[in-house]
Amino acid sequence: MANAGFGDLVQALDAAGLTSTVEGASAATVLAPTDAALAAPLADGSLFGSLTPAEQADVLTYHVLAASLGTAALQGATGTGLGEVDTLDGRQVFIERLGTQLYANDLPLEPVGIKTQNGFVHRLDSVLLPPADDLIATLNERGYTIFAAVLANLGVAAVLQDPTAEYTLLAPSDAALLSLVGTQTLDELLAPENAEQLLELVLYHSAPGKASAAAGLEAGSVASSQGPALFFRPEGNGLRVSGALVETINVPGGKGVLHGIDRLLGTDTVAGSVSGYDLDLASVAISAADLSAALSDLNAKATLFAPTDGAFEALPSGQLDLLIANGPAGDLPGLLTYHAVAGKLDSQALLVAGQQASLQGGDLIVEQIGATTYVNDAKVVDADLPASSGYVHRIDRVLSVPTDIYSTLEARGLDTLVAAIDATGAKALFDGSQATARTVFAPTEAAFEALPPGLLNCLLDGSQAANLQTLVLNHVANSKQTAAGALGAGSLTPVAGPAIDVTLGAGDVVLVNGVAISSVNVACTNGVVHVIDAVILDGYQQLVPDNVTELVQGLPVSGYGAIKGVLEQTGLDVTLATPGPFTFFAPDDIAYIDLATDLGLMFTDLQEPAYDDYMTEVMKYHVVVGEFLCAADLLAAGSVTTLGGEVLNITDNGVGGLTIGTEAGVVVANLLASNGVVHLIDRVLVPSTAVLPQLTVADQEEGAGSTGADEAGFSGAAMMALGSSGRAGMVTPLVGIGASSTARAIADGGSGSLALAAASQWRGRNDGASLLADGPTAALVLIDEPAQVMGARLILASGEALEPAMVFVLEWTPSTPSTSGDSTTGSIPQSPSIDRWCAVWPLTQDATRLLFLPPTDAADGLETGATSAAPEVFAISF
Known about the structure:
single chain, 878 residues
């Protein structure tokens, strides 16, 4: 080492008897002061040569680390140094890198890496002073005497004199304290009446724990003993703490560490403090808005809610640049003054007041939710940062100057909610045109997108006005409730729908019906908005059936009784009650009769177990899984894939409606349930995959004599035709039969047909296959066996059976004359003119069905009016 410029150190080690100690250590790294360093004054002003041999030995021992550390090892795994490293006698030295400079405590270290037998030698241009017993002693030793005296004056020195206490102390130099001016001079601060303010400032200069320079930079900030954060930022090969330049780093004292700084923290103006509190963009904005002077007036106390750099950077692209470019003439002054209030208000004073009037004029909502303090929708990330003329509170977003609720929703990009409000015609509730202050829970765009596929389109397509209005108003209360206020109440009563529960979840997140509020307290001129992460569906779901099955079972229109049994037969009643979502095409009763007729069957035949597979395949063709498809979406899609895998085409029928498949028309569209949408159609859709069963003769005979339409549950004023065998009939159109008419009836039915009609005003389908009565006033039966007339009974809801009020004969003229007939069945050979027996009853709402009893003797029944008490053969409900 002597040949490397460390001759005086070698002699000093020999004189202190330490050479053998260093050479005898299993591993040692010497932080070697140069000859010039040993000759220069030490940090406390003394000279090394003037120290006693014991003092010299103590200093030299502090330069020997108990490890073999080469150049690379000193950098540490992260390149920021090793932190604290033990010396041979068990004390610690900070080895840290700031910028490009490696330091040993507060001294630059040159890692020359001279290899020795048991370690390395690295160069120091100054001499390390061993740690004093405590931080107060360290202050005095290093020349921070005024600050040490201030601490003693305030009675806090005793805490820092505890040799076991770990503290980080930021010590303003004597020169910095003596240079204070204005109302913050040292004499002013030391005045008894300012003791509380001074104590607050002093405590801001300390922090529990040992935060070295590198550790502070890595953390970014450290909570002070006063509470507000101390901000560590790199500055070349050094650092700043809360804006103050650190002149001396990492001076150990007792169990703590001292950093010497060039100013007393908290004595700058509000504007001047901003940059030191890691708020560079806020500082730039204040200058651009020409507000520096206003926020630097020591006589004008102000409190600033300063957005962090990250908050400014989160603004829409280009917005901050535009604000700064427009300067004082643009929106920037109003925006920034909305972030400031008059008076020097710490967080406690702000919370007591709650609502604050900003310097811009708009109100700010300040409240605590759990352990988090909010200003409007911004979190206070660092509170109570001191300034000579006020306080700075760092917040995590840029506040918006309040506008009305409707404009706020637009500005926030909550476009779907705005569209829903427009669709309901309820804009006046939100745009400030009414005096009532309101609270709005506003779902995000993502919340609407998370709704079951297609539901939103259904709600917005114009067919769901009542449902949509309830959904929107379930998010609105006719009073202004901040998040903390709503939490205190526990629930809010919305304009529509059930009460909204408000609770506090994990992480101080406010929950609305279990849904998180992502932005609380967005201040508006006519209320407050809370942005939520899901759509509240409670009110809407109270208006619609729980599921498609329930909807179909309770359809509000007549003529859809058969489908209930069909769903049970095919098991789709269970499927359509699951979450879905589903789109379901529901055929009416006559559509099922038409299906049976086309197949040469009675509908009751299709309900037999033998037809279960066929009917299941048919009905799967009526179900689309995975989406609410209302009429507009169906037409836009053009085709859909059904539950059975078949593709179903959707077309415009040319008159403003839809055709499903090739011929089914949509009678009623867009009936909503919680798990799907139902469209009522007038034909049964039959896929190519549906195959009729091959029935044996025994199967067919077993089907004869079916109990008929009563089992099928037909409803409404339907006209039907049944063959005399109870099986092969067809629907027959009637022409000219009125409420009091005795006009001719022309029927196109086959031989042996039986027709039931509700007569008043008739309307028919395009193909003439069937008729419905709009306002039935009479029931008419056409029977080809005269004796059957006397076996017909109209059954009332009370159970009473009414005989025909009138029996007469009409002339029947078939459209296709035939000479064939079958005497074995009693059918009358078709000819151009044939008499047909008729029975008529008054038709009231109390009528439930038409019952046919087997006649005893045709002639006798006709002549005597006798009836049989035998069981019914079949019945028709209407």
